[in-house]
Amino acid sequence: MLRRLSSVKTQEQLLPVARRQRLKPPSVLLNGFSSRAYSHGASESRSKSAGWFKPLLAAAVASVTTASLIYTIKQSPSNEKSSTKPKYATLEKMEKAIHEIQQELGEESISTDDEDLKMHGYSEWSSVNIDHLPVAVVFPESTEQVATIARICHKHRVPMIPYSGGSSVEGHFSAPFGGISVDFLNMSKVIAFHPEDMDITVQPSVSWMELNEDIKGSGLFFPVDPSPPAKIGGMIATNCSGTNAVRYGTMKDWIVNLTVVLADGRVIKTRQRPRKSSAGYNLNGLFTGSEGTLGFVTEATLKLARIPEETGVAVTTFPTMRDVANAATQIVREGIPVGAVELMDDVQMVVINKMGATGRVWKELPTLFFKFSGTMAGVQDNVEGVRKIVRQNNGGELEVEKDKSKQAVLWSARKEAFWSMLCMRESGHEAWSTDVAVPISRLPDLVEMSKKDLEKLGLFGSMLGHVGDGNFHETILFDGAKEREMVSKCVHDMVHRAIEMEGTCTGEHGIGLGKKEFMEKEVGEGSLAVMRGIKIALDPFWLMNPGKVFDP
């Protein structure tokens, strides 16, 4: 069930950097736990009483006790999924698990405070929210403590939901079956830094931005750059990317090894520390992008790159979205090694001007932003190559900045985009943010068709994205069930069109709750059955982040 989002007026109120902030969402019910509770058509419930927590929790847990624990992988070519559902702990068992965790980790390690539960089950910037919350939040400080939590939850059949930066827009940390939210807030340490090997080992709650600030004196940096609030754990869970992906790749390309706690409390390390290995299965690839459904990453060794000698940022405008997309794809095909190619449509530029967060006024036209990096001569050559292609595709003058402070001003428009859009909401309105990706040859077609659909919708919506690798986003503001239905159709049409173009329903946001319905169409029944088989092998009771990616 989509949850109404409260009005937010400033970016500071939106950024989840104050991890203990009180979001004040509408009252959230804990009753009616169901694997169907988060379908878009589900009816919304709200608690009116002050003492809602325990009686509603009892009803919630009681409603899932009728499900079965049996999992069967049918021996057929299609390897069909089991028709049974997992059975989760009763309220009594959940309380017992909480007590055991407190005994093992200490009284202060766990919270059942109402506001903590709301913060860990509801998000103002997620496109999908449900009427259910975790029953407790636990704050481990080490791999060993996470293993203890998993062992206890496994024994009592209590769902576990990982929580890191809280910046997901697809409901990744929601709790459709209650259970315990595992918040990695206190696991934000650098374990080991090996500048001579160009790698670093960190805990999951390390911020990528703070990491780069801490190590910049070494001449190294971590190049994956998603939303500013993102933390390493969530970045691994969704195989995120960011503006640098066209040059540096996505999260999976920067992982050396992972330490993972499995559903029953076992701890594994995926491999040793060389830059490459052909020893056995690619377990890094298995856990990266699994959204916490196969195991919880508690440590990660990450590759680092050299800070470039020279950098530049540039911006230019175009008359149409097709011109923008044509220019972006031509730049990539001609092999110009740009650091980033970012699209923002005319509506998004209007938003940036209205919010005034960048300190300048922008042309309100479809816009491309570029990053350049390398040697001084290399950057200059690449700028001239881009300038030529921009002109060939009806673009305006290419504004280039090499001064670091002026670069920051130019690039701030791209980094402020999503948060500025959220700040445009009127009180009570919701925001739907989504992403797709297609082969770059199909990008101009999809961008043009999606923009036309967005304009026909008649609602306030914008497009932006990492078009250098065929990935773009839409954010649409709406109010009420009728408009939500309109937005849902618009988004579904775009996603289905992307899949038909041999693309994906999500380039970087992940599946979570919001995009499960597209999984079979995209990967096929056979691949989905293999994924279920892996899930059952590692987590037979479906305890780790249940309800995400696909259902039993």
TrEMBL record:
Gene Ontology cellular-component terms listed: mitochondrion
SUPFAM superfamilies: FAD-binding/transporter-associated domain-like (SSF56176), FAD-linked oxidases, C-terminal domain (SSF55103)
UniProt superkingdom: Eukaryota
UniProt subcellular location: Mitochondrion
PROSITE patterns from the UniProt entry: FAD_PCMH
Enzyme class, first EC level, given as a word: oxidoreductase
Cofactor requirements of the protein: FAD
GO biological process: lactate catabolic process
Statement: the UniProt record of this protein carries the keyword Transit peptide: yes
Pfam family, one: FAD-oxidase_C
Keywords: FAD, Flavoprotein, Mitochondrion, Oxidoreductase, Transit peptide
Catalytic activity: (R)-lactate + 2 Fe(III)-[cytochrome c] = 2 Fe(II)-[cytochrome c] + pyruvate + 2 H(+)
EC number(s) reported in the record: 1.1.2.4
Major site of localization recorded for this protein: mitochondrion
Keyword GTP-binding set for record: no
Domain FAD-binding PCMH-type: 130-307
InterPro entries cross-referenced by the UniProt entry: FAD-bd_oxidored_4_C (IPR004113), FAD-bd_PCMH (IPR016166), FAD-bd_PCMH-like_sf (IPR036318), FAD-bd_PCMH_sub2 (IPR016169), FAD-linked_Oxase-like_C (IPR016164), Oxid_FAD_bind_N (IPR006094), Vanillyl_alc_oxidase_C-sub2 (IPR016171)
Example GO molecular function: D-lactate dehydrogenase (cytochrome) activity
UniProt family annotation: Belongs to the FAD-binding oxidoreductase/transferase type 4 family.
Protein name as it appears in the record: D-lactate dehydrogenase (cytochrome)
Annotated organism of origin: Penicillium polonicum
Highest classification ranks of the organism: Eukaryota, Fungi, Dikarya, Ascomycota, Pezizomycotina
